[in-house]
Q: What sequence folds into this?
């Protein structure tokens, strides 16, 4: 019925009676007895409606209060984030997670910061390594690192190097936010 009224349709007498009956006789009585022109006129109806709405929400959620619903919502968000971290993100994205989260925080204090990044060395120079040209690798000592893919070697990448340098926090964060999908001519 609320939808019909919001669309400009006039309610029939039967529909109006159903709306009044759904609100409950005590609400009609309390609203009607408020003095005309009073700022409290309708307050009783609003309060009863709010109480009934909160009761309905509580019943629909199995009696959970706000803190329990909030905890459930947060658990769902963390579960989805954990799933994406394990199943959707690439190994390189997972490696840079803490740096990605830290770049906006660091950007509050300075425009640039010192970072150790995985760089692809080519005949033309050095640039940040991209997802499609690296794969996880475990050394003989058991250390986890990355190695070039066969495709990266075919297109001219020579080797990978960890290099420490200063980078603009905002640009680095934006680069990672795009999912490491920049081209081989990326400015970072």
A:
């Amino acid at each position: 019925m609320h939808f019909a009224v919001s669309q400009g349709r006039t309610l029939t007498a039967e529909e109006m009676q159903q709306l009044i009956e759904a609100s409950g006789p005590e609400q009609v009585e309390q609203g009607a007895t408020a003095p005309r022109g009073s700022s409290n006129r309708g307050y009783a109806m609003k309060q009863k409606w709010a109480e009934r709405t909160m009761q309905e929400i509580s019943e629909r959620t199995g009696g959970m209060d706000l803190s329990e619903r909030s905890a459930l919502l947060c658990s769902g968000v963390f579960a989805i984030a954990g799933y994406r971290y394990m199943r959707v993100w690439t190994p390189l994205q997972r490696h840079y997670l803490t740096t990605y989260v830290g770049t906006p925080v660091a950007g509050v204090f300075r425009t640039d910061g010192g970072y150790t990044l995985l760089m692809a060395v080519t005949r033309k120079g050095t640039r940040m390594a991209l997802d499609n040209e690296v794969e996880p690798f475990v050394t003989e000592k058991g250390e986890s690192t990355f190695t070039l893919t066969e495709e990266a070697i075919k297109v001219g990448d020579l080797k990978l190097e960890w290099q420490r340098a200063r980078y603009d926090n905002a640009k680095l964060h934006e680069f990672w936010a795009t999912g490491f999908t920049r081209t081989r001519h990326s400015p970072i």
Observations:
- The two ends are 57 Å apart (CA to CA).
- The chain is about 50% helix and 20% strand.
- The beta strands are 112-122, 125-128, 134-138, 144-148, 157-168.
- Residues 27 and 47 are 9 Å apart (CA to CA).
